[in-house]
């Protein structure tokens, strides 16, 4: 069976910055493979297009430019926020609000995003809302472990079970 729309795909992969010799960002192995419903829009489109049509046992390796991945790093995505916004019951959770922490937040439209705490002052918090891999070319290498038809429930829920 081939990777395609309404198929559940399990695979291994390594993700590196730039190319095959680049810094290792993530490794997914056979003990805990990545399993997903193909074609529901949850993955980078060019990532999916590189897997489309592969079969169990096929290996793959390909690069994505930063434009095909998470785009350019944008300085305007680093913003200062009033520290008050982090108060819960009139207190700021100092364990949560630490430099380097990623904090789930919502924009004015209710869309959830993650911001990385860059700096903290007396009354402001500087946060970076760029994707952690923004500005980076990516290299993927791996193997298709299995492909199966998605169940009706998986298709309705838009994810594998």
Structure description:
Strands 1, 2, 3, 4 and 11 form a five-stranded antiparallel beta sheet that branches. Strands 5-10-9-8 form a four-stranded antiparallel beta sheet, with no helix packed on it. The two termini are 19 Å apart. The protein is elongated. The model has no long low-confidence stretch (mean pLDDT 93). It has two helices and eleven strands; from the N terminus they run βββαββββββββα. By secondary structure, it is mostly beta strands. It folds into two domains: 7-70 and 134-157, Chitinase A, domain 3; 75-128, Beta Barrel (Thrombin, subunit H), CATH 2.40.10.
Compact summary:
The chain has 161 residues and is mostly beta strands. The chain is built from 2 helices and 11 strands; from the N terminus they run E-E-E-H-E-E-E-E-E-E-E-E-H.
The second-level CATH architecture of the largest domain is Roll
Q: What spatial form do the alpha-carbon principal axes imply?
A: elongated
Mean pLDDT: 93
In quaternary terms, these chains amount to single chain
Could you name the CATH topology of the largest domain? Chitinase A, domain 3
Note the total helix count.
2
The CATH class assignment of the largest domain is Alpha Beta
How large is the share of residues in beta strands?
35-45%
Total DSSP E strands: 11
- Structural class call reads mainly beta
**Major sheet details:** 5 strands, antiparallel
* Helix coverage percent: under 10%
**Measured distance between first and last alpha carbons:** 19 Å
- The tally of domains stands at 2
**H/E series:** EEEHEEEEEEEEH
């Amino acid at each position: 069976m081939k990777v395609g729309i309404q198929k559940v795909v399990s695979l291994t992969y390594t993700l590196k910055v730039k190319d095959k010799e680049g810094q290792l960002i993530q490794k997914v192995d056979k003990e805990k493979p990545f399993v997903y419903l193909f074609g529901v829009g949850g993955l980078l489109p060019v990532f999916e297009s590189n897997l489309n049509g592969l079969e169990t046992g096929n290996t793959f390796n390909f690069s994505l430019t930063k434009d095909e991945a998470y785009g350019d790093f944008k300085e305007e995505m680093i913003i200062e926020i009033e520290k008050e916004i982090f108060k819960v019951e009139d207190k700021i959770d100092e364990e949560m609000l630490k430099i380097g922490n990623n904090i789930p937040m919502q924009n004015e439209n209710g869309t959830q995003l993650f911001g990385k705490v860059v700096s903290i002052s007396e009354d402001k918090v500087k946060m970076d809302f760029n994707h952690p891999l923004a500005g980076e070319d990516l290299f993927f290498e791996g193997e298709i472990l299995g492909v199966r038809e998605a169940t009706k429930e998986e298709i309705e829920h838009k994810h594998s079970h």
